[in-house]
Request: fold
Amino acid sequence: MKSFYLLKQVVFTYLMVCGSVYAATIKVGNAQVIKSITKAISLAQPGDTILVDKGRYSEGTITIDKPLTLIGKAYPTIDGKKKYEPFSVKSSHVTIRGFLVKSSGHSSLTDIAGIKVYNTTNVRIADNILEDNFFGVYFQASKNCIAENNKIKAYGSTEQLSGNGIHAWKSDSLTIFNNTVKGHRDGIYLEFVTHTKVEKNQSTNNIRYGLHFMFSHDNAYLYNEFTHNGAGVAVMYTKRVRMLYNTFNENWGDSAYGLLLKDITDSEIRHNRFIKNTTAIFMEGSNRIHIENNQLESNGWALKIQASCMDNTLVSNNFINNTFDVTTNNMTLAANNFNQNYWDKYEGYDLNKDGLGDVPYRPVSLFSVIVEQYPMAMLLFRSFMSKLLDRTERVMPSLTPENLMDENPYMKPLNV
Amino acid sequence: MIKTEKLSKKFGKIKVLQEISLHLCRGQCVALIGPNGCGKTTLIKSILGMVVPSSGTIIVQDKNISNAWAYRKNIGYMPQIGRYPDNMTIGQIFDMMQDIRGEKAGLLDMDLYESFQMKELLNKRMGTLSGGTRQKVSACIAFMFKPEILILDEATAGLDPISTEILKEKIQRERANNKLIIITSHILSDLDELVSEIVYMEEGQLRFHKTIESLKAETETDKLGKAIAHIMLSSKTTVHA
Amino acid sequence: MLKIIKYVISDILRSRTIIAYMVLLLALAFSVLGMESNAEKGIVSLLNIVLFVVPLVSIIFATVYLYNSAEFIELLVSQPLKRTKIWGSIFLGLSGAITLAFLIGVGIPIIIFAWIPSGILLLVCGAGLSAIFVSIALWTAVQIRDKAKGIGLAILLWLYFALLFDALVLFLMFQFSDYPIENGMVALTMLNPIDITRIIILLEVDLSAMMGYTGAIFQNFFGTGGGMTLTAIILLLWITLPFLFSTLNFKKKDL
Reply:
């Protein structure tokens, strides 16, 4: 009898430790014995799975403080009633899957989120729908976490009243995969985040930026789509960024950018598509950036490169149907390498038939320089006056940067 | 039929017409003559409403013509230089004038049209025509709508002798129809057998308005040309004197 | 009135100049739109040609026509017709014929290659420009008796609208760049029908660039229904006002 008790103790302890292996499943729902998720969590042992039936659960803030797997059946609704944080994750090894999380509280003091992950590791937020929350999914000082296949949507009308869709702060090694974010302040926002992969997300119609990161080194952004965001995509104060195969679409407006680079160094921008943005790429204080095989099409300004940029390389990009190809605020923009791009405005010839034009192309037009200084001059865009200025300048360059040119422009568009 | 009272016209500072008072009646054929720049054409144009008088009134068929236009229905005008849109054919010009006048084809006076053998020229473009042919077109149009008043500015200039004769005969016939005909011409011999009255103008002023008989009697000549020459000479001496 | 319009149009449509104009437009539009795979880009290239050629041909052709038709106009005036009707018919005939030549010359290629909103807008605006410059030609021709002077003035006016005006705008912009001149500048461009046309079409085609820094201004004015209506009204005024002034002159003119 005593030994049996002992055995029981050992097994229990074992189950406690290796909960994931011998986990129990607790069911929650109107038709179940346990009707509240909070209660289920308090009853559960680490490693247990809590299965939540369809229904509406308004339990204030549900805090998950042990390693648990929460699975919603047919999207049960977790309602924050505009007051609470629906899910607070404060333990490692938590999974939240299949919930409709809505109406978190709003606060200007604390960042309340639909699902907020606090100082932990190995949390997985997957297949949820988040609606009308202040912040959507929020990782605070966390590591090795995943947010995938979530649909995040908000209806904020001003930057102040709206948080970010996916927000990460002081975190490391996150994976943000295949989420869609709409109507938040920033679609995806990373600050002090490292070694993170942002892949195949769609960020659309957000009030400010589709993607925004600051002080976040060694991250990669792949196959994302940033469409119709208030001011496009902004990346700032960051080193070693890889941005590949992304699409930047229709980011239109007074100060909208396809991609705004501010103090970015040692980074790569390859195989991206910039279509119909007011300014496709804006570079400021950015050094050693390699821009290759990108498609820049139908933008107002394809590239605005400020005086503070050095040692950047632009090769094998297509510049097609942009109003202005390149503008700069500096006359002696040196040490940036433009080579072997395709420019549809190029009027040179190729006598030796090597596919490269025999005379250099100067992508900065005089009129664009004037517009840079006197924005109102845009009123005269495409007038004879502007043509005349450009023609004259081409014959006798005096006001456009002398060194900024592509020595070997391609005659035909490249496959990028 | 046409009455002008103290009709004056200034082009800038130049007084082209100075207080012209004139009374022309039905059945008269009036020769309006005078040296170049005497105001003949301006007077005609004033009557036609092409020139707006500076002062004075013009009454046509008992109606003041200022700002009126319908009275021109009763006037046939043959301009000094008849120029028409280059790409229109003669036929189209006739069609257009008939359209404008709103006359039915059957009621038209086609005398000149037939005498000048216009039918064969109907498809010719105006731009390709000689000055004489254009004059013929102008003459046809002036007479076509049976107007009560005919104003012919340098009518015979540019016409060949045969056509001139045809036109003169037509003028005489119309005068016999009790119409008022006003002609200006430099070729006085052409006017000789046509006109009943002479209106002589000089430097914008009306020098005299007399019947041809009294004029010939006064100057004791039987040719109009000589009579006019006489007048011109005497007026010159008066000016110099 | 219709009668005269009919004859004026049929006369002009048979003139070699107007046929050459139409053929030129056809050739230019076909080559520009045919070579350009992107229809919108083609429209932009065509826009430059239209803004250059249409005002020039419209104002010069109309001026020359008016001087060459002086005697014909005299003849019309000697007929039982109201002067305003004659002048109106000449205006409608002239602008009708030139507009028709434009619509055929540019319209056919647009229907074939670029039947898109900006293409249609280009047709409408080009037709408007034709009428505007005929209207301006009427005003100058009625005031100047001398043919050579009249044609000279027409060329000068074209030069002014096509180039000098923009130079002036640019100059003012440089001079007063420190002041809030945005609204004033937009208002200033309203004084040039070529500029209005250009901006309207570019807003349709080149939206991304036009929405740049100056986006707020453009959007506040041209982007709104009210602004567009106002612009349309101004273009209509550009057609009617010079014509009305010319009619007032013509009513009192000594021929």
Remarks:
- The first helix of chain A runs from residue 2 to 17.
- The interface with chain C takes residues 252-254, 276-279, 298-301, 321, 323-324, 370-371, 373-388 of chain A (CB under 8 Å).
- The mean pLDDT of chain A is 88.
